[in-house]
Amino acid sequence: MQDIKNTLECQYEHRTIKAFDGVYRIKRKSNIRYWVMGIFVFLVVTLLLPWTQNIRAKGTVTTLRQEQRPQELNSIIAGRIVKWYVKEGDNVKQGDTIVKLAEIKDAYLDPELLARTREQINAKRSGLQSYKDKVAATESQIGALQQSLELKLRQLSLKVVSDSMESIAAGNDLRIAEEQYRRQRIMRDSGLASLVQLEQRNQAYQNAVAKKTSAEIKYINTRTELNQVRQEYSEKVYKARGDIAAAQSEIASSAAEIAKLNNQYANYAIRNGMYYLLAPQSGQVTQATKAGINEIIKEGEKIVEIVPLQVDQAVELFVRPVDIPLLSYGEKVRFVFDGYPAIVFSGWPNASYGLFSGKIVAIENSLNTNGKFRVLIAEDSTLKPWPPTLRNGTGASGIALLKDVPVWYELWRNINGFPPDYYIPKDKADAQKKK
After folding, report:
1. pLDDT at res. 2
2. What distance separates the 2 farthest-apart alpha carbons in the chain?
3. How far is CA 58 from the centre of its chain?
4. CA dist., res. 94 & res. 81, Å (int)
5. Is residue 342 included in any domain, yes or no?
6. pTM over 0.70
7. Higher-pLDDT residue of 197, 263
């Protein structure tokens, strides 16, 4: 080979053979050693660089509050569609009319249903007032009976006193006549009085006995009459009170019927207001389930869905149970939204492009049907705002930032299958130290 080169150099003494030198590298030194040393230094430096541990999870864009999520407009009553006031895609305000319904149940077809129900209520109220008047009249009758009873009892009481005094007087006369008859009989036995005189005294005595008996009978009759009067008036009063009780029972029944009719009237009035379905909130009308006129809808059936336009957006992530202890309220989370360009270095979030920030506001304590825990993350307004064109349902990949460790430690942890280090936010750590 050297002979060939020398020969060629002799032939081309004044020329440089670059191709030969480039192929055979005769006069050039090797740089492999420097490359190996450079790569080794680069790897060492790379292994010593800080790496941010993280948890990655998939989720979707939703809203922070329940009332800001898509709302179904359901019909409380069954009915027939008469007229549509909007179409799919229209924006409506709260209270705008969406659709008009007509009645299909025979119990509510009467156009004068409210007026007739009101007439029934008025009739029941008239009957109720009649029973109240009857109660008042019967109470007045009881008052009159009680007054009459008092007068009658006073009269008979005076008569009882009079008969009692008359009976006492008759008893005194009887004792006097008896004493006179006894003395007259003694005088007759002594021969000092005639038989005629004795018979006269006997007659006077018998008259006194008859008078005394008559006075006692009259006194007893007056007492009996007094008791009869009491019993008679008591029966009348009890009968009147029974009439009052019956009237009050009718009053209670009428009041219950009036309350029932008022309830029906209120239900009918409310039902009349349900024929027009109104938008519960401002938003866009979507997903109409009925397409035309005269279609029948059932009670509680969905008619349309209204998607709010102004919402507080959030992201719901589904995290594995093994990663839940590493998350805490207020912790920062980075997102990559579907459809938005991004360059992600999960361990170096500051060097990534297209990431959006949020903070954890809710961690559910129960598993979902997919076997993972649901975590709700709200927008962090202090950092990069979320895209204004973001829509609910957009896919999101979340990266929850944990502790900063060297790259070699993270590689060693993943090779051995160890979980990330438990991370306590700075504010919580300070609070624990103070406590």
Report:
1. 47
2. 223
3. 35
4. 21
5. yes
6. no
7. 263
Same domain flag for 56 and 145: no
364: exposed, middle or buried (C-beta count within 10 Å: 0-12, 13-18, 19+)?
A: middle
Do 319 and 394 lie in a common domain? yes
Report the alpha-carbon distance of residue 149 to residue 233 in Å, rounded: 6
In single-letter form, the type of residue at position 180 comes to Q
Would residue 389 count as lying in a domain?
Answer: yes
For 417, list phi and psi in degrees, rounded to 5: 75, 25
Calculate what percentage of the chain has a pLDDT beyond 70: 81
Give yes or no: residues 269 and 280 share one domain: no
CA 207 – CA 407 distance, rounded (Å): 146
Residue type at position 324: I
Shared-domain flag, residues 363 and 386: yes
DSSP state of 386: P
Q: Which domain holds residue 225?
A: 113-273
Length of the chain equals 435
Structure tokens at 255: 């009041």
Tally the domains of the chain: 3
Asked, for residue 347, whether it belongs to a domain, the answer is yes
* H-helix or E-strand spanning residue 319: strand 313-319
Residues 6+ apart with CB under 8 A from 311: 63, 64, 65, 68, 69, 392
37 belongs to a structural domain: no
